[in-house]
# Entry
Amino acid sequence: MKTLAPFAGCLLSLCLPAAAIDLSGLTPIGPVAGFTTATDGIVVTCRDGSQVAIRILAPDLVRVRAAFGHALPARDHSWAIDKTVWDVPQWSVKEDSGALRIFTPELEVVVHRDPLLVEFRDAATHQTINADERPMMFDAHSGGGVAAAKKLGFDEHFYGLGEKAARLDKRRGHFTMWNRDASYAEGSDPLYQSIPFYLGWQNGAAYGIFFDNSYRTYFDFGASTQEYAAFSADGGEMNYYFFYGPSMKKILARYADLTGHMPMPPLWALGNQQCRWGYYPDTLAEEVVRRYRADDLPLDVLYLDIDYMDGYRVFTWDPKRFPDPSAFTEKLAKQGVKVVTIVDPGIKYDPGYQAFDQGLAKNFFLKRLDGSLFHGKVWPGDSVFVDYTLPDAARWWGDMHRAYTDHGVAGIWNDMNEPSDFLDQTGQTQGDVVSYDGGANSSFNRNVFGLNEARATFEGLERLRPNQRPYIITRAGYAGIQRYSTMWTGDNTSTWDALALSIPMFQTLGLSGEPFVGADAGGFMGRTNAELLTRWYQVAFLTPFCRNHADRTAYDHEPWRFGTYYEGIIRKYLKLRYRLLPFLYTVLEEAHRTGAPLFRPLLLNYQDDANALTIDDEFMVGDALLEAPILRPGETSRLVYLPAGTWYDYWTGQRYSGGGMIRVEAPLETVPLFVRG
Ligand code: GLC
# Structure
């Protein structure tokens, strides 16, 4: 029988979604008893038998890894990390009676002996950037939980954490990471993705912390107390990376080095995309494309949602709805349109169905500890799931995409990969599900399931079409997902609030290492209206992922649905996107190379401007374009903050001196747009 890594309970009393972090009852690590040096840092041994490794990866990047009450385990594996071998910079260590001090060209890491507190200082100024408020902690009762608490500055601001339905500045917020299929509104937490990486900003200097722990994790940025900012997990290791800026862009570049750079997507991925749940049969899908062309609306991609499959069986085509998939994709290709198909991870439990039979015979499906298959319920009904941590299973999954590439399908849409299970969206009933996990046979880790599915898909597409850049879009993910996939923000709603929320969501994703983002334009669920759809396109035309999509029960909202007046405005913005493609592609290449996202908060370009710290109803594209969208019904003018410098109104050429607010007119045809001088 397989061994199961201890599945931590919820003894940190952190189990309830979005509960603030309570550190009471946890046992502190330490104090320091001694240390040894290695080529890349030191290993501190504590009087309680604990060990803390401080590893220097770069002058501005330090890893802290702790084992509580025992030595650090030899196994050291993460699905997130891309770069494991670093050119260790010059460093030195000194000790005195109070502390061990590690010096890199940019950082001074002080390990105070008693109590054991880790403090990061600027090497030049000796100013504290970030410091433990109390020693790292563990849950001695369950043996599973770990926590860290950092001093909280009076004017400290927090950003990042990936996909969060929250404002840009996360101060006073508390968040959970536990991939979940959830339709959402502002405040819903957790969502589909887990990116446990955040940026702190204080007195103009930024740092980053990547808590690489894919168990259920929690972050508290002054929600429970003004004394500390804390992060914790129900299990796994206290294992985090500390990044020092002081510039945020520098941190994002390092984060990309560590967890992987987004590969360049094909240029067509920046084209306009159209989707809807319900585009079948093939003739109806063709009609959508015909209408796009007839109406002189740009279009590069058409999506097929689950309706193309035979009974929602992945890797199949419905013989009635899509009798000749190759002819279908060819017909669209002639009009310059690519096809992307949805691929869900649930494989229908259906003896006689090839994917099920093969996966079962090869032992590729996730199982429970007692050896029985793990079942869930998704679109095809009773379904099983692949253990993507099994190398052979991942390869098989990737190769199965021949069912699409053989028919000219251009890209893959990975949905439902939290994984969604209609019987249990919390994962509570999965405690005894085992995944191979490099031979560790660990308890199933839902936070990395989507990441590993996307990886298997990406590598499959690379094998099947070696000379083409893979294009994948995913709903779920973990840190590192940018190596394999673009993302969209799942099932939003057709509301003004959802449109407004999408701005800080994209900005936050961009500050979390995911540059290629977007939302369902018009909103997925509910009823959009002409004004909302038009205003939505005025944002979507500048997001990397620009796709109109709707639920099967939603009101139709293709660009022409509300008549020629609105369609004309939408056309104007889609055409502007295409005119800007060389610029957008260039900025995307910058994201690929440097980690600085295309869709940015002002803050990223104007880190020293205190006014920019919380602005999330405006955004920038690269460092040259600034948009102040209209996010409320009936509004035809708004206040716009322009950072210091010269700005030009994109439409009129009028020149402005920044450093303050201006009021600008914004009739429905015109979104406030400015070009940096
Ligand atoms: C999920 C997806 C949505 C898709 C639907 C049907 O809700 O988020 O985009 O249309 O499933 O596949």
User: Anything to note?
Assistant: The mean pLDDT is 95. Residues 13-252 form a domain with the Immunoglobulin-like fold (CATH 2.60.40.1760). The first strand starts at residue 27 and ends at 28.
